[in-house]
Design goal:
Length: 415
């Protein structure tokens, strides 16, 4: 197949949507498909263009057999709702020359758009009419719903315009794919035909991310002993997670010198968290950069418990990508989610983590105390088993590849 992928995030970004898009494209190219990507200069989750790309403008590169077109964009140092909108629209405008170039260069079987940003789907719809390709809109995050529920955008008229644009994109896409049952239900509630919705969950390379002993972990590298208790949060330090509760919980454990909070990541909320920890005089909280992918198993093995935190309003909009790695590593995850959400239901059904009320410091403290106890081994075993049976990278991508091939049957002959 000839596949055109359009998304703002891509490799070498280590976390979030870019990681999954990069892995998917590299895998498809390895299977012999011709994959072309239109994306931005890498900037996430640091919200700074990565050093190797600074000063670059439009350019083409080949990564793991994938043809990648990079486009410049505005990257704000301080992420606000308005600056984020400008950031996303500068990328949309910046990609126009590449769309024009590809329109006259070759035809594609599939145009695959990654949402968010949700409005990226407009250009692929126009392109597909001219290029005669099928359109897959892949939803990693219901961005407009999240902006409304988190209070990031309060102007009702503006929200209605965005919901209208989103509806137009989804209804005119050949397929709408998404990552969880909860998000599929919400998409169906937008009057989207269930027959055109695919489940395309995020995956984990369970052969690379696997359980390791404490001796094989990064404990010695960061000065921890086997007797220390490590509470780990790794990933994006953003607004949806409600990470302030980590600082509140750490205050409770100040009197227990063997309990350490290790925060590995970056993002728009990092400076505030660092400031909160400093103002509280906490000595049991450490902040570190994201670790490279090849160290991920060793990082995850360092932890006694892992934190997967979200605000109440986001608990059924986003399925945290960090959870797949934690499960594959056989980690004991503390997951904040409300009953009735996909996240709550799957953790509860397979007994593979500790559930806690979102945005509650006391609930988080109680969950940490449970996780540091002696009864978490079964949760760890169940976590690894679920990752192997349900989240394997090869099985998920092989299934989606098959569905793509079915989608384009009979299309190539018209070229």
């Amino acid at each position: 197949m000839r596949i055109l992928v359009y998304g703002i995030n891509y490799s070498p970004e280590l976390t979030g949507i870019g990681k999954y898009t990069g892995e998917m494209c590299a895998w498809l190219a390895k299977q012999g498909h011709e994959v072309t990507v239109i994306t931005a200069l890498p900037y996430y989750p640091e919200w700074q263009v990565h050093p190797n790309y600074r000063g670059k403008m439009w350019h083409r590169e080949v990564m793991e057999g994938v043809e990648v077109y990079r486009c410049p964009l505005y990257v704000p140092q301080e992420v606000t709702s308005l600056k984020r909108i400008i950031h996303e629209f500068t990328f949309l405008a910046s990609t126009l020359p590449i769309w024009f170039l590809l329109l006259f260069r070759k035809k594609f079987d599939i145009t695959f758009t990654i949402n968010p940003p949700f409005h990226l789907g407009l250009l692929p719809l126009l392109f597909s009419k001219l290029n005669r390709s099928k359109v897959i809109s892949h939803i990693q995050d219901l961005q407009v719903d999240a902006a409304k529920d988190l209070g990031m955008i309060k102007n009702e008229n503006f929200l209605n315009i965005m919901f209208g644009m989103e509806s137009f994109i989804l209804k005119n896409s050949t397929v709408v794919s998404t990552i969880s049952d909860g998000m599929q239900r919400k998409i169906e509630m937008k009057d989207i035909n269930p027959a055109k919705i695919w489940q395309f969950p995020n995956w984990v390379d369970e052969q690379t991310i696997k359980p390791l002993s404490k001796a094989q972990s990064l404990r010695s590298e960061f000065g921890f002993t086997d007797a220390d208790k490590v509470v780990l949060y790794s990933g994006n330090l953003g607004e949806k997670q409600g990470l302030e509760v980590i600082i509140d919980a750490a205050k409770t454990f100040q009197s227990q010198p063997d309990v350490h909070f290790f925060i590995s990541g970056t993002g728009g909320g990092k400076e505030r968290l660092v400031r909160l920890a400093q103002d509280a005089g906490l000595t049991n909280v450490q902040f570190h950069p994201l670790q490279p992918y090849e160290k991920l198993s060793a990082l995850l093995a360092m932890a006694d418990v892992h934190l997967v935190l979200q605000k109440k309003s986001a608990s059924d909009l986003v399925l945290p990508s960090k959870l797949t790695g934690i499960l594959a590593s056989g980690g004991c995850a503390i997951v904040t989610a409300l009953p009735g959400t996909t996240l709550y239901d799957v953790i509860n059904k397979y007994n593979m983590g500790i559930l806690a009320e979102p945005e509650s410091s006391s609930a988080l403290v109680a969950a940490i105390q449970t996780g540091l106890g002696e009864g978490a081994q079964l949760l760890r075993e169940n976590a690894r088993k679920y990752a192997v049976e349900h989240l394997g990278k090869e099985q998920i991508l092989r299934k989606v590849e098959g569905r793509m091939e079915e989608l384009v049957k009979g299309v190539r002959g018209s070229y």
